[in-house]
Amino acid sequence: MDRKTAILYAVLAVLGLVAPFVVYPVFLMKCLCFALFACAFNLLLGFTGLLSFGHCMFLGSAGYVGGYLLKAHGIPTELAMLAGVGTSAAIGYAVGALAIRRQGIYFAMITLAMSQMIYFLCVQAPFTGAEDGLQGIPRGRLLGFIDLEANPLVMYFFVYAVFVASFALIYRIVYSPFGQVLKAIRENEARALSLGYDVDKHKLLAFVLSGALSGLAGVMKMLVFKFETLNDVHWSMSGEVVLMTLIGGVGTLFGPVVGAFTVVTLQNQLAELEGWVTVIQGVIFVICVLAFRRGVVGEIAAFIKK
Fold it and tell me: For 131-159, what is each residue's pLDDT tens digit?
C-alpha cells in the first residue's frame, strides 16, 4: 500500500468513527452490511472472474441460522455469528464443488439454481417462519458484557469494527500470493493451469471465502434489524449485489463499498416512489455501464493515473 492510499484509508476510517454522530446510525449500519456483502461478492467476481447469480443464499442462510439460534435457544451472540458464518461456508463448499466444474454462464446458472433451492427450503422449513420470517430476534450481549440492545451507537461501532476487520482481511487476501493466483486465473485460466497451479482448488477456496464473508454480512444485517425474512434469500438480492459491484467498480477494493452506499442511499431516499425505485436503479445502472465502464472508483483511479 502506498502512502497516498494509506492516508485515504485513514481519513475514511476517521469519517466512519464520526459518521454516526451526524447520520442516522441504523442507515449507516445497513450501508456497512451491504458494503461487506458487495466486497465479498467482488472477491469472487472482480478478483477470480466468477460471476455468481446466487450469492443471496449465503446472506440469507447465515441470517436465518444465527437468528434462530438467538431467538429459540438464546445462545451467545458471537456463537450465533459463528454458526451463521459456518453455515454459509459449508453451503459455499457444497455449491462451489459442483459449480466450479463449469465456466461462464453455466457457472452462473448453477449458482442461481442452488440459491433457488435454498429459497424454497427457507419457505418450507419449520424454523424460518415461512413468509413471516423471524421477528423480534434479540441482539444479546457480545462477549457476555457488551449490551448491543441498550445504545444504537454501541451496535454501530460493533458493525463498523466487523466491517473494517473484514475489509482488511479481503485486502490481505487480494495482495497475498493466493490472491495473485486468483488474478492469474481471472486473466487466463489455461495459462495458470499450465504453470502448475491447482485452479479448481483455488476457485473453490475463493468461493468458500466469498460465501463465508457474505454470511457474516447476513448475520450482521440480522442483528441490526432484529429480523430475518425471505427478501434476503430471494434472487433479486443477488441482482442488487451485482448492481452495487458494477456501479462501484469490479476488481477494485473500495468500489463495492461506494456502490453499496450509492444503492442503499437511493433506496432510502426514493422509498416514497415505491415501484419506481427499481426503474430508477435500472436507469442509473445503464448510465454507469455506458459512461463508467470501470465503475465509479475504477474511472477515478484511471483518471488519477493519467
Answer: 888 888 888 888 777 778 778 898 999 99
Q: Return d(Cα 163, Cα 99) in angstroms, integer.
A: 28
Alpha-carbon span 51 to 34, nearest angstrom = 18
Average per-residue pLDDT in the chain?
88
pLDDT band at 96 (very low <50, low <70, confident <90, very high): very high
Measured CA to CA, the distance from residue 222 to residue 61 in angstroms comes to 11
Domain range annotation of the chain: 23-233
**Of 85-99, 103-117, 124-138, 220-234, the least confident:** 124-138
Instruction: Quote the pLDDT of residue 258.
Output: 92
| pLDDT average, residue stretch 267-273 | 76
CA 50/CA 99 separation, integer angstroms:
10
The span from the first CA to the last CA of the chain, in angstroms, equals 19
pLDDT in tens, 17-54: 999 999 889 999 999 999 999 999 999 998 998 999 99
Closest by CA to 222, choosing from 85, 90, 46, 101, is 85
CA dihedral 146, 151, 152, 155 (to 10 degrees): 0
Tell me the mean pLDDT in the region 183-196.
89
Q: How many CA atoms lie within 13 A of 193 on its CB side?
A: 8
Q: Taking the alpha carbons of 31, 202, 168, 306 in that order, is the dihedral positive or negative? A: negative
Which cell goes with 247?
456501479
Q: Please answer whether residues 122 and 63 qualify as being in contact, where contact means their C-beta atoms are separated by less than 8 angstroms.
A: no
